[in-house]
Amino acid sequence: MASSVQKRETSLEESQGGIKLMQGLLVGKIAVITGSSRGIGKGCAQVFVDQGAKVVINGRDEGVCRETYQDITKNGGDAIICPADITNKDEVNKMVSDTINAFGHIDIVVNNAGTSRDALIHKMSDSLFKFILDLNLKGTHYVTQAILPEFTKESRRDEFKKIINFSSVAGISGNLGQTNYAMAKSGIIAYSKACARELSLDRINVNVIAPGFIETRMTAAKGPGDELGMPQAVRNLAISSIPFSRGGRGGLPQHVGNVALFLASNLSDWITGQTFTVDGGSYI
């Protein structure tokens, strides 16, 4: 009996994308997803492709972008790769123009690209502080700014266009050793609310996803010499605070991708300026 229960829990964990009640929610839609060569961004790209969207795979490493492209198109998905550093305005503008040249228009922008580099306040270097704010905040602004000429065309005034920005629960509650990251991610929420107000007359929905502990390179067990990740003891403590967790694991990128799908689809047309936490019950 116990083994059958355990088997059932495992199968549920392995299908954490959930039961597909609706299909084709993004047919005909074009989505730019920054930081989609890995982690949560890749999870969003896979969900979007499964729902009929054509997606742009973005990251700084062209080789990793190509690997992700192969993964998400092997079953017939449609995508292009646009390697770009989102803190470089020229590269961002080229990514947007390349997307329009390839697909004709853009309907959805997911500002997912971001990272953390942790240090206690008294050990936080200026360069580390600036790096995190530039990537998370300035990068989001550059991509948003670059898409506006497309989203504010008079011919598209009556269409709903979607911008989904990524914050973090650290931007809501703070976190030890992450003053730079918490500040940047809190800023994303304020920035998104201001954008939602400013862009509402053009029917541009601007919403935020704030993930909790999701299984990515940032939350993997950190080995000697690894730049990303966290000590196993810290990882265990974080996972123990997630009520929905099973088997010593956090959430999956697909959990976040499903919320991004809702916000990217017409199901969310009457929602803007809101923040959605995806944390398995950690920060109720």
Number of strands: 7
Range of helix content: 40-55%
Overall pLDDT? 90
CATH class: Alpha Beta
The fold-level CATH name is: Rossmann fold
* CATH architecture level-2 label: 3-Layer(aba) Sandwich
Order of helices and strands: HEHEHEHEHEHHEHHE
Major sheet: size, sense and barrel closure?
A: 7 strands, parallel
Determine the structural class based on helices, strands and strand pairing: alpha/beta
User: Spans with pLDDT under 50 lasting ≥5 residues?
Assistant: 1-16
Residue fraction in strands:
5-15%
Search tags:
7-stranded parallel β-sheet, about 280 residues, alpha/beta, Rossmann fold
Protein model, in words:
By secondary structure, this protein is of the alpha/beta class. The chain has one domain (23-219, 252-278): NAD(P)-binding Rossmann-like Domain (Rossmann fold). Helices cover 44% and strands 12% of the residues. It contains nine helices and seven strands; from the N terminus they run αβαβαβαβαβααβααβ. It has a seven-stranded parallel beta sheet with strand order 3-2-1-4-5-6-7, with helices on both faces. Helix 5 packs parallel to helix 7.
Secondary structure: elements and pairs:
Layout: H1 2-14, E1 30-33, H2 39-50, E2 54-57, H3 62-73, E3 78-81, H4 89-103, E4 108-111, H5 126-151, E5 161-166, H6 170-173, H7 179-199, E6 204-211, H8 232-240, H9 253-264, E7 275-278
Parallel strand pairs: 1-2, 1-4, 2-3, 4-5, 5-6, 6-7
Sum this structure up briefly:
With 284 residues, the protein is an alpha/beta fold.
